[in-house]
What does this fold into?
Amino acid sequence: MLLFDLGGVLVDFTGVRDIAALLSKPASRADIVERWSHCPVSYAFGVGEIGPAEFAQRFVRDWGITLEPEQFLREFRSWSRGFLSGARELLDTLRPRFRLGAVSNSNEVHWARNAELGVTQQFEFAVSSHQVGACKPDAAIFEAALRRAGIAAEAVAYFDDLQENVDAATELGMRAFRTEGVEAVRNCVKML
It folds into this structure.
């Protein structure tokens, strides 16, 4: 089985770039990624502890964004842009040979957007952090995906753009690859 992270691997997620434009002070990509990954509000939303309205209100306040929460939420929703060029075609070529699944640190808003864009329907199953109450690299989200697939970790090849998630999948027994974009995935699949 092939198990995929979505944003940065198969899906165009523009959050880092888009949030940079909303900040009152310039910040580097690395700074935004670091801040996002340690943001308690983003985490709470990503594991389903708070809803969209509370997330937007707290996030706008904590990050110093000048948009009203409702306007920010509309912008936030647009950050998930659908498949990267060539991703759907790659999945079409892999589907006859492999079972395909997805596991993503996501939230209620982006998960609904991905469904609207036809992303989640391209997989046998797709698991989001907000559905299981755990974000990667927490083993619990990977274990939820393995239960959903009814398969042992050793039978899975996993693809993610963040090394800490690759390391966590490897610790569980998956064969895991750090990949950014469709071509990197294609190259790794050739090694299987």
